[in-house]
Amino acid sequence: MSTTKTTSSTNKSDEPAELATAFALASDGILYFALENAPPPGRSVFVGYALRADEAQKFGVGGLLLWAIVHPLALGSDGCIYVREGLIDAEGRDVFRGFAATPEEATRAAEELHRIASNVVVEVFARKRAAA
Questions:
Q1: What phi and psi values does residue 42 have, to the nearest 5 degrees?
Q2: How far apart are CA 114 and CA 33, in angstroms?
Q3: What's this model's pTM, rounded to 2 decimal places?
Q4: Which among 15, 21, 101, 103 is most buried, taking Cβ atoms within 10 Å?
């Protein structure tokens, strides 16, 4: 997962000047931004390890939802499902480390994703028309 460097700004909320491009939405409703260094002060951190495709398929949707009720899972922007550290063997797995977004950061990220998604859809349809 690639990230942009996050740095604390000088405002009172310690909001990063740039939001990470890699993120994970956890089953507890918290959006986590990938971190490269120390998290901003006072932020909770999610460390999770990716399930392999065969594991996700074995659990199925119902099993994953049940697991998410008991232990936080996170869906990463890379498409992986991350299980909180300590619940599965970490060896050889992708890892996600991120800090909790403030409500303001989560809103800003959602707005940016909405803007980007619209541009992607326009580009995909333009390419499909050009290829036809």
A1: 80, 5
A2: 17
A3: 0.70
A4: 101
Question: How far, in Å, CA of 109 to CA of 96, rounded?
Answer: 18
The number of residues in the chain equals 132
| Residues 77 and 24 sit within 8 Å (Cβ to Cβ) | yes
Tens digits of residue pLDDT in 7-65: 333 334 454 444 456 899 999 899 999 988 899 999 999 999 999 999 999 989 898 88
Phi then psi dihedrals of residue 61, to 5 deg: -60, -45
Residue with tokens 């980007």: 116
In this structure, which amino acid lies at residue 107? Answer: T
Residue (of 71, 107, 66) closest to 86 by Cα position: 71
**Can you spell out the DSSP letters for the chain?**
---PPP-B-SSTT--BSS--S-EEEETTS-EEEE-SSPPPTT--EEEEEEPPHHHHHHHHHHHHHHHHHHS-EEEETTS-EEEETTSS--TT--EEEEEEPPHHHHHHHHHHHHHHHHHHHHHHHHHHHHH-
